[in-house]
Amino acid sequence: MPEDVKAHITGVVFQITSKAGDxxxxxxxxxxxxxxxMEIPVEAPRAGVVREIKVxxxxxxxxxxxxxxxx
Length: 71
What we know:
Elements: E1 3-6, E2 11-16, E3 23-24, E4 29-35, E5 38-43, E6 48-53, E7 60-61, E8 66-70
Antiparallel strand pairs: 1-8, 2-4, 2-7, 3-6, 4-5, 6-8
């Protein structure tokens, strides 16, 4: 069952570290946000396959926004 990966802080997408089709383990970084000059990884909430990345590098996201979907 698909699960949303959500930003836990407002920031700018600094780096996308996974792509659709990648297998990730629980806790693996999916994207990295930059906020207040700090790099903060957004981690996979569980193991699975990245179904979709919903953001682009340089995009601003708000806390709670879905940044990826894992199957």
